Amino acid sequence: xxxxxxxxxxxxxxxxxxKVTVEGLAAHxxxxxxxxxxxxxxLAEAGRLERVHGGAxxxxxxxxxxxxxxxxxxxxxxxxxxxxxxxxxxxNCTIFLNIGTSTEAVAxxxxxxxxxxxxxxxxxxxxxxxxxxxxxxxxxxxxxxKSDGGLIGDVTTNMIRQFKFDIGVIGCSALDLDGDxxxxxxxxVGVSRTILExxxxxxxxxxxxxxxxxxxxxxxxxxKIDTFVTDRPVNxxxxxxxxxxxxxxxxxxx
Length: 254
Description:
Blueprint (H helix, E strand, L loop, with lengths): L2 H15 L1 E3 H8 L3 H13 L4 E3 L2 E3 L9 H6 L2 H12 L6 E5 L3 H9 L6 E5 L2 H7 L5 E5 L3 E3 L4 E3 L1 H7 L4 E6 L3 E2 L4 E4 L2 H12 L1 E7 L11 E5 L5 E4 L5 H10 L2 E4 L3
Parallel strand pairs: 4-5, 4-9, 5-6, 9-12, 12-14, 14-15
Antiparallel strand pairs: 1-3, 2-3, 7-8, 10-11, 11-13
Helix pairs in contact: 2-3, 5-6, 6-7, 8-9
Protein name: DeoR family glycerol-3-phosphate regulon repressor
Pfam family, one: DeoRC
GO molecular function: DNA-binding transcription factor activity
């Protein structure tokens, strides 16, 4: 099979599963590891994929990738982070979970917590936590974003201001090396800022891939976050800044 045939199929597989490995693709196409490495190198140079250790993922971009692709991307890391995040959430408290695949993973880990009041603008989170009989769920109003089941806009932010949460858990689309938390949608940014304002404790959950991406809208600095849950250690500069800001960095699995 020629590379002109393999390349489109490699891209299609990556869109479906989020990450491909050299070994997996070699077995799939019955070719050598060196052949697949050349294919991934060519696709990366063309901007179609982004090389990572052992394989490739969808490229970083200034526009967000599809929600199903995001749900599959770094799925194991998200599960580990979600467990670490859920361990920070006691029973008998009020929390907010916002839009995102990472916060959905947290919702799964909260399915056995007791006496929770969860407020969310994420329809997927509400459906997940409907399985927990010891959890009351309040869904904010707002404009439904059909691409991901998120509720955004002024109605959403106005309702959030009616609460004071023990813990607010947010995700993001990107992080820059200065520690700024970034997103694509200005309305979602407004919602995230309001969550931070209305929470006694704030948690950001974001995997290492967010440092490889760019997004145009700023939510806040990590200085506004109490606990940053991630899957890999951050660089030394940001680690020192977080220490100065008294922002705890919790590396899942460490």
